[in-house]
Structure formats: C-alpha cells, structure tokens
Amino acid sequence: MPFIHRRPAWAIDEKLATPEAVFLNRRTILAGMGIAAASAGLLPRKVLAESDPTADLYPAKPNDAYRLDRSLTPEEINANYNNFYEYGTYKEIAQEAQQLKTRPWQIEIGGMVAKPMTLEFDELVRKFPLETRLYRHRCVEAWSMTIPWSGFPLKSLVEAVEPQSSAKFVRFETFLDPDMAPGQNNFLYPWPYVEGLTIAEAMNELPLLVTGAYDKPLAKQFGAPIRLAVPWKYGFKSIKSIRKISFVAERPVGLWEAIQPSEYGFWANVNPQVPHPRWSQAQERVLHTGEIVPTLLFNGYGEQVAHLYKGMDPATLYM
To answer: Which of 51, 120, 163, 172 maximizes the CB count within 10 A of its CB?
Structure first.
C-alpha cells in the first residue's frame, strides 16, 4: 500500500513560505539598526556566542512539518510585548526581565518515574536534538503571534524518564526568587507559577520544550532558559523559566486557575465559540499586522489534538 502524506490543515505550500534568505536578510537589517534590539534586551549573535554556553546550538535545524499560513512576528515586536508577571503586570517588561539570572539553572525532573534526573540546563539542552518549529501563539487576551521556536519535543523527555502507570499528569513549576523577580513580592499571586498537562497531551507531537527563538538562545523575557510551547492552548499554559517537572497522579492547579477558576481552567484549549467571561474569543488581533482575524478551533491544530478529547464534555475543555 503506498504511503500517503496528508498535509496538516494549518500548513501551506512550501512555495508560499517566506524564503529563508529574505527572512534572514530582513533580520540583518533590523539588527544593524540596533535600537530595537537594544530596547528589548536582545543580544547580537556574536555577543551571545561569547556569553551563552549554548549559543553554538543555534540556528537549530528547521522542521518543515511545522509551517504557517501567516508571516512570522518580527523579533523586535515579540521581544517587547510579553506577559511575565514575575516582572510586572504590563507588556513592556523586557528591560525588567533582564534581572532574571539564568546561570546556574538546575532542572529537577521526577515524581512517578523510573528514571528521575536533576540536571543543569546546559547539560539538559544537549541531551536531545534541537529543531526549529514555526508555531502560532494565541493569548487568552485575544491577541496572537507567530514565532520560530527552537527546542526539543516534550515527548522525548517523557519517554526518557519512563513515567509509571500511576502518573496521569505532568506538573511544571517555575523559579521562586522574589529578590530576582520583584513581581513575586505581590502577595495576590500564589507563586511560584505552576501549570500542567495530561500525560496524553504531553506525549502528543506538538508540545515543545523551548530553549531558543529567532535562531538564538531564548531571550529572558521569553522565559529563558527553558519554557513550554503548547500551541493549541491559550498562552498561559505555556509556562516560562521552568525549574521543576513532576509526574503526578492528581491534576495540577495552575496559578491562573488558582486565582480565578471561573475564567482560567485547566484545559484552556482555544475555541472561538466559548468566550472568556469578560470578552469574546471569536476573533484575535495579529500583533505585527494589526489585522483582526477569526480564531481557529484548537488554534488550527485540531488535526493533531482533537482525538485527545474524544468523548469528553466540550463545555469543560476550553476555559
């Protein structure tokens, strides 16, 4: 029987993608301007090579299975529009986020697993081959970006630690250091930031443990040195600056769910038909173009993930 390759619904023909030379040339021009990069706390590749011990891993090989139907959000826009409540409740926190100290950075991976491990980030990032994927990023606030993330599949890490059958969820936890992150002095939030996925979600092809973006190690305001990207869910599920990954039997309660469970639920799957209690999710604003476009079910990744929720109550799945 011949092998039939079906292109994902969110993919486009290769001829329609922005040529790499054009994209890289535009980045070179912007870098030469200097102002935008400096204001975002971004460093040129040459400087990164001298200051970041993982800089030699980038650019990571593109995975052409993950393409987009939109142009990429320019780095200078993405780098200056971030949610990172550890450093402020506003979007322009790039400079404040430079307080984040990413070395040393130890990551503990354990719980209900056969092979727990505790590794320095610089060791972990070299255990798995890195790749670059172009992903949509849809915020629950109804804005969106498209980002060239680099990293390795979460699935690879799950397989490496061999979860026990009693482990039903993966719990992610970020750092806790109010001296380094002034926002963590705000007693209204149950720090540290926590999020979670089911084992089935974590074993899907899409979740990516992100270590870089725009062909460089991850900028601090993006959640350096390692964060999660779960493209079919609202952005608050994609936890930043991960310190601990635990395999557990009980469903984790995320920071936003703990604060307001009527507005931020565990599942947080993108659905245009289920509004946030305070605003519609039917449309989204694309940051770098200003366009208002229809929101796609599962953010356009339904072909890959809809089967994970077969037979479940649809009303519980989205917020």
So the answer is: 172
Burial category of 6 from C-beta neighbours within 10 Å (exposed 0-12, middle 13-18, buried 19 and up): exposed
Sequence-ordered alpha helix ranges (H) in 186-310: 199-202, 255-259, 302-305
Q: By three-state DSSP, how is residue 140 classified?
A: coil
Tokens representing 99 are 């307080």
- Between 184 and 31, residue with greater pLDDT: 184
E strand segments, the chain: 61-62, 106-111, 117-120, 131-138, 143-153, 169-174, 194-198, 208-213, 216-217, 227-229, 242-248, 283-286, 292-294
Nearest CA to 170 out of 266, 227, 251, 236 is that of 251
**Distance, CA of 296 to CA of 138 (rounded, Å):** 10
Please name the amino acid found at residue 43: L
- State the residue for tokens 């307001």: 260
Six-digit token string for 9: 């619904």
pLDDT in tens, 225-263: 999 999 999 999 999 999 999 999 999 999 999 999 999
Tell me what the mean pLDDT of segment 50-63 comes to: 93
Q: Is the pLDDT of residue 20 over 90?
A: no
Burial class (CB in 10 A: 0-12, 13-18, 19+), 307: exposed
Average pLDDT of the segment spanning 198-220 = 98
φ, ψ for residue 316 (rounded to 5)?
-95, -10
* pLDDT value at residue 69: 86
Predicted confidence (pLDDT) at residue 128 exceeds the cutoff of 60:
yes
Measure the CA–CA gap between 157 and 29, rounded to whole angstroms: 37
